[in-house]
């Protein structure tokens, strides 16, 4: 109870809840982006480990509201090899998260996000093969990123979205991929003994605002153009990555 009371009165939590609401909004209409907004912010306010555990706690339940719509559009032949690769790459990522330097992890988070946004915003199209082996490698890279910095989506986002297969198709694939890999991610973090009461409480506190953002975002998805939703998602992710860089800690009083 004391942990809960102390966290509820912490100004950092109030700031993080605002970020969580925005992340839920983006996840709702884009199908991705929550981790790329919440993880750098949470790492700056608390630590990378706390941010990632809080993310998996708050995302596990609310994101399931997106499953029915995604189920009708998902391409399982694309999703399953990537999901298998994720499981293979996850342990190495969690090892880095547990034993890596927190400040270096924060730089890594920002660098990966900036690189992903740059690639997608540039309009670059992946023209290579789309074989099960390539999908497996994409998933393995995502598993490493997911375990180490809590951002599993970028490799799959680049792989699927750059193919110009349509917003609904990519969104459905990402929603189902994240649903499958959540279980592996939570299991890995528990085995690595990275779950703490602080992180769990922070995650639980964020569920109401995250769910509200998700529901609003899902409504917006049906009323926006594909180009429009991508631009908004990229812009918000970019702002989060830049504002939470370790070099700006002094500017924002962190």
What do these coordinates show?
By secondary structure, the protein is an all-alpha fold. It has one domain. 77% of the residues lie in helices and 0% in strands. The chain is built from twelve helices and no strands. It has helices at residues 2-8, 11-30, 34-45, 48-60, 67-71, 76-99, 102-121, 132-149, 153-161, 167-191, 197-221, 226-243. Helix 3 (34-45) packs across helix 4 (48-60). The radius of gyration is 17 Å and the shape is globular. The mean pLDDT is 84.
Number of helices: 12
**N-to-C span:** 27 Å
The tally of structural domains comes to 1
State the share of residues found in helices, binned by percent.
over 70%
Oligomer type: single chain
> Based on DSSP secondary structure assignment, what is the total number of beta strands?
0
List the main descriptive attributes of the protein structure presented here.
globular; 77% helix
Task: Summarize the SSE layout with pairings.
Elements: H1 2-8, H2 11-30, H3 34-45, H4 48-60, H5 67-71, H6 76-99, H7 102-121, H8 132-149, H9 153-161, H10 167-191, H11 197-221, H12 226-243
Helix pairs in contact: 1-11, 2-3, 2-11, 2-12, 3-4, 3-7, 3-12, 4-10, 4-11, 6-8, 6-10, 7-9, 7-12, 8-9, 9-10
Brief account:
This protein has 254 residues and is an all-alpha fold.
